[in-house]
Design brief:
CATH architecture of one domain: Orthogonal Bundle
Order of helices and strands: HHEHHEEHH
CATH superfamily of one domain: Winged helix-like DNA-binding domain superfamily/Winged helix DNA-binding domain
CATH topology of one domain: Arc Repressor Mutant, subunit A
Length: about 170
């Protein structure tokens, strides 16, 4: 039997608080988006990932990496969004096996309309409740955890697929 290093009281408090905070924030942000726009929370996340790119496009596997979703989930989400005119799938002329997910004009209009309400909700539910020191500490902690995932991805990925972008945006929309 392997040894389990159980969480101590401090570690468990931090872990559970993070889990519940994330669940509540996602739920509230999803409700806000549904009430104020025609976008679901997953729609919004996909559109943010695409608008963070100057050309508004990502390969399906890149989008999956940016969102931390499995390829099947991304594929189903993109299919739904294509059906609603929010994104398009375009063949990659250089690699006929792959396709790009490209933000459509309607997707750009929808996110531009939804972003002010979303940012106001993020500010009301999260940013305004924290001090500058807390925001900095939380940002540092999140970046340390994300860097660990990036290291795992590099170790697990075949050499040919190590080109995945690991940049994080410094702004929330």
């Amino acid at each position: 039997m392997t040894h389990v290093s159980w969480l101590n009281e401090r570690e468990e408090r931090a872990w559970r608080a993070l889990q519940f905070m994330q669940m509540r924030l996602e739920g509230e942000l999803a409700r806000q988006l549904a009430a104020d726009s025609g976008l679901s929370y997953p729609d919004y996340l996909v559109l943010v990932a695409l608008t963070d790119r100057p050309d508004g496009r990502l390969r399906l596997f890149e989008l999956a990496g940016v969102l931390g979703w499995d390829k099947s989930r991304v594929s189903h989400q993109v299919t739904r969004m294509v059906g609603r005119g929010l994104v398009k799938k375009k063949r990659d002329d250089a690699d006929r096996r792959g396709a790009y997910v490209v933000i459509a004009r309607r997707g750009r209009k929808e996110i531009e309309a939804a972003a002010p309400g979303h940012v106001a909700a993020v500010r009301r539910l999260f940013v305004d409740r924290l001090t500058i020191s807390q925001l900095d500490a939380l940002g540092d902690a999140a970046e340390a955890v994300l860097a660990g995932f990036d290291e795992l991805d590099v170790e697990a990925a075949p050499t040919a697929h190590r080109t995945r972008s690991t940049s994080r945006t410094s702004r929330e929309r």
